[in-house]
Amino acid sequence: MPSDTAPNNGPWDAKLQQFHGGQEWAQLDNFVEDFSVTTNAFGMPSSGKLAAVHSIEHSHHYPPADQEPAKSSLARFLWPGEFAAERERLILGNGASELIDLVIRMAPAGTWRPGPFHTQYKEYERSARNNNFALLPPGTAEKANVACLVNPCNPTGDYLELPELKTWISDNVLPGGYAIIDESMQPWQSEKFREHSLTSQREYVETLYRAQGISVFVMHSWTKLWCCTGLRLGSVVCPTAEHMRAIKKIQVPWSVNTVALAFLNAVVEDAKYLQDTWEMTPIWRKDTVDRLQTMFPAWEFHGRDFLSWIWINTKDTVVAERAVALARAAGVPVRSGGPGYNLPAFIRVAVRHPDKVNVLAEAWKSL
Ligand SMILES: Cc1ncc(COP(=O)(O)O)c(C=O)c1O
User: Fold this and answer.
1) Which residue range or ranges hold the Aminotransferase class I/classII large domain (predicted)?
2) 150 lines ligand 1 (CB under 6 A)
């Protein structure tokens, strides 16, 4: 069962569902900004919003069963040079959550293990548990049939570069097994994110599959980078076109709706939005860390400087609980590390515009 340490899990059924952030905003009369999710500080790109609104006009028709032209557009975004050859490995989903579950359903039965970090995004574990995998303890040296690593890691902010990532895969996946690497937050890395991404490593992935039967999947949630959690958009890059077809076979038809497809087709062209993201996120992140560090010298701030959130160890469960309550009361909810991650002294704070950080800092003055 998911760990459940919070007295109030809001809309989540803590016995059946995995806790996530992002549910409180609708219940707050004084809502200002959602610091509890890792979405882009720039909000939903207007290019995508416009396309999504227009697409309502066509929403009395079924969406395209082949997810086109949005799928090819995303392929062109991921592989500007080689998209035609690569797109057969790509499939879209109703958020990464749908694809996480589908890939784990197809995976070879046996053991499951998480990545090497203190904790990681929990849907992989939830799906493995639901599909009767034996869960290996974090930190185990044992190789698993299915190994899932979130890179950069939500929530800890750890990040492995490609050589370390490949070593981890070799050290942790059994021959014939699956490695699912979640790169949802990786495009924040910089303008050069593609060179640092596993999506650029076709030859490596092919060789690993041929030599050891290890299938490497690269998962993306697009609901964070393009701030569209309500629209539901994800994709997975499969090791081969056959793997992609195996997912297609079990995927519910039209799981990505007309509005989400139109949104995706537009945002991949929005170079300005990404330029702004790469330029401002590290600046706003550093400003927020500096400010909070001054206010709370005992707190520890974790995560790479390009990330859209800050993972904070307050080192005191009572302080963390009060910080969460004060933020919520001021209309700026943050994510407690308690429910879901079972790390109640930690909080996660999204990177946001300085005006919104002012509201949070004001709320925490009495902490
Ligand atoms: C690392 C990571 N992967 C996947 C997801 C799932 O996202 P979605 O289903 O909204 O695409 C999330 C959401 O928080 C996430 O943080």
Assistant:
1) 51-359
2) yes
Q: What is the pLDDT of residues 64-83, one digit of tens each?
A: 999 999 999 999 999 999 88
Question: Which tokens sit at 42?
Answer: 């720039």
Ligand 1 atom with the smallest distance to the CA of 97 is: 9
* Of 199, 263, 198, nearest in space to 230 by CA: 263
Tell me if 214 sits within 8 A of 208, measured CB to CB.
Answer: yes
**Which sign, positive or negative, has the C-alpha torsion 33, 184, 256, 106?**
negative
- pLDDT tens digits for 79-125? 999 888 899 999 999 999 999 999 999 999 999 999 999 999 999 99
Handedness of CA 26, 27, 28, 34 (dihedral sign): negative
Matching CATH number, 47-267, of 3.40.50.300, 3.30.565.10, 3.40.640.10, 3.90.1150.10: 3.40.640.10
Q: Closest residue (by CA) to atom 13 of ligand 1?
A: 221
33 lines ligand 1 (CB under 6 A): no
182 ligand 1 Cβ < 6 A: yes
**Exposed/middle/buried for residue 4 (C-beta within 10 Å: 0-12, 13-18, 19+):** middle
Q: Which two tokens stand for residue 8?
A: 């109030």
Cα(56)–Cα(69) distance, integer angstroms: 17
The whole-angstrom separation of Cα 207 and Cα 214 is: 9
For domain 25-44+271-366, the question of CATH label 3.90.1150.10 is answered with yes
Pull the structure tokens for residue 56.
């309502």
Cα distances (angstroms) measured from residue 326 to each of 115, 149, 299, 321, 329: 33, 33, 17, 9, 5
Q: For ligand 1, say whether the CB of 121 is within 6 Å of any of its atoms.
A: yes
